[in-house]
Amino acid sequence: MTSEDDILLSDDQGAVRILTLNRPKARNCLSMELMTALSGALARAATDDAVRAVVLAGAGPAFSSGHDLKELTARRNDPDRGRAFYDETMRTCSDLMLSIVRLPKPVIAAVTGIATAAGCQLVASCDLAVAATDARFATPGVNIGLFCSTPMVALSRNLSRKAAMEMLLLGDMVGAEDACRLGLVNRVVAPDRVVNGATELGRKIASKPARTLKIGKEAFYRQAEMPLDEAYAYAAEVMVENMLDAEAEEGIGAFLDKREPQWPR
């Protein structure tokens, strides 16, 4: 396991890279430094051919408690009352979430403890999520006068509108089983199985053809924002290009020949 300034740990388990937020005493809150480190680590994973999937985890008792409120509050003494820093923070956070969605490899959240505010946003931005039985989720900004507007973007794209609005308007904690039922997480496992469970999912995905995964992930998020007729037209174009790819040629040929595919490198 390697360390990046001790705030982000990186560990390769075969084709799966595990990135662990490492500010346990601060409940892994997303300081500018941590968000920058995570963005850089994701960028490196994107271009590393040995990495086929990424797992995001949190060290200690929390996945992430959201933005670093102490860091934000300290900037109220700036001449502009912190406006420039707040703008930089929110843009950095938004860019981080977009980098997860746009990463050409699947990203899986491994959630133990709490995932609140921007920490909940981080989970919602991942492609898949595995949660511990005692994990809890919330967008509690409304309770402190700061509506979770940026977490709302990811949350509203994972949950039904009414479920997302309930979380946003009430700010209450949601247990792991309810989060699974609502669509925020995929699986709920024992606390000592969370990272392994997420890694196992990553390994299974890593066995699939790489370019096909890249094509599929990009297409999924693009079509989701389109009107139905445009989505079908776009998806049809993607299918044609995919059909002409060497991976599809090999995969379909192997299926018809009743043999295991040998994916081209």
From TrEMBL:
It comes from the Bacteria. The keyword Ribonucleoprotein does not apply. The keyword Protease does not apply. Coiled coil: none annotated. GO terms for molecular function: hydro-lyase activity. GO terms for biological process: fatty acid metabolic process. May play a role in fatty acid biosynthesis and insulin sensitivity. Belongs to the enoyl-CoA hydratase/isomerase family. PANTHER family: ENOYL-COA HYDRATASE DOMAIN-CONTAINING PROTEIN 3, MITOCHONDRIAL (PTHR43602:SF1), PTHR43602. This is Enoyl-CoA hydratase domain-containing protein 3, mitochondrial.
